[in-house]
Amino acid sequence: MNKNLNKMCFLKIICYELRRALLNRLFFGLLLVNGLSAWFILSYDTIMGTAYTAPFSVWSYCAYLGRTLPVATVTILLLLSNYYSRKQKQVEILTDATPVTPFCQILVRTLTAGIGFVLIYLVMCSLARIFYVRFFQFRDFAVFILPSFLLLLPCFTFFAGVGQLLGSLHRGLIYALMLLVLIFRGIPNVFDCFGAGYFSTFPLTLPVGADGEPAFRIEFSFIIVRVLYLLAGIASLYLATALSARKSRKA
Questions:
Q1: Which of 224, 100, 83 shows the shortest CA–CA distance to 160?
Q2: Alpha carbon distance 226, 222 (integer Å)
Q3: What is the distance, to the nearest Å, from the Cα of residue 216 to the centroid of all Cα atoms in its chain?
């Protein structure tokens, strides 16, 4: 009986958070900003190709995703910052009375932000598809799937975790993180969380193939760093849960 009650409360909270966070003018406005930014990048950057490769190469597509990630990340951090406002603290008085654990609360916030992130990148990928078909008649998007996951999943997990951990300490730290995201958005090495700097410079170090551009490959060190970002995000979510549980016990 208690398990069923917990599941019902969990589902109700998820539905409530999805409506509150995503079905409002702010999110649709941010979605529009992301779309306009992506189309600008496609039209004035990606169209020229990345590191002397074709605009529709995997190199150029990954660089495109990497250049869109900072704006998308700031959007997700803005959504997460709402959970640490004064108004939200009043709501938590009610949620603390429910049988939902701090872990479930963090999970709900992460799922809500994750769904928002997926919606943003459905728009990004749709715009890229329209762009590539319209200007280059390119339709082989299957080659982009695995590199996209390698970029998007670690980046989202890292910032969703770190954002909630910082928010648990002080809401202002989330805004400081947003500023850092916009400042350090194109590090040209394997530590580039967004990937734009890496995919714009690494092809220049590779030999050119018969088709006039380097074959696509990723350094093992880059993959290791992506895994570390993923693990750091998961660890941050765990610490955020622990902080939330401690505050609930004190209350």
A1: 83
A2: 6
A3: 24
Residues in Cβ contact with 245 at an 8 Å cutoff, skipping those fewer than 6 apart: 101, 102, 103
- Counting every residue written for the chain, the total comes to 251
Q: What pLDDT is stored for residue 40 in this prediction?
A: 96
| Residue among 232, 231, 92, 217 at smallest CA distance from 162 | 232
Find where tokens 């803005």 sit.
Answer: 78
Asked if pLDDT for residue 87 goes beyond 70, the answer is: no
- 13: pLDDT confidence band, cut at 50, 70 and 90? confident
pLDDT of residue 95: 54
One-letter amino acid of 90? Q
Tokens of 166: 């910082």
> pLDDT-derived band of residue 5, with 50, 70 and 90 as boundaries?
low
Alpha helices in the chain, H assignment, sequence order: 2-22, 25-44, 58-81, 86-95, 102-136, 145-169, 171-183, 196-201, 220-250
Q: Quick one: pLDDT at residue 226?
A: 96
Cα–Cα distance for residue pair 204/61, rounded to 1 Å = 16
Listed residue (198, 199, 109) closest to 156, CA to CA: 109
| pLDDT tens for each residue of 116-139 | 999 999 999 999 999 999 999 999
> Long-range contact list for 8-15, CB < 8 A, 24+ apart?
9/98, 9/99, 9/100, 10/100, 10/104, 10/108, 13/95, 13/98, 13/100, 13/104, 13/105, 13/108, 14/108, 14/111, 14/112
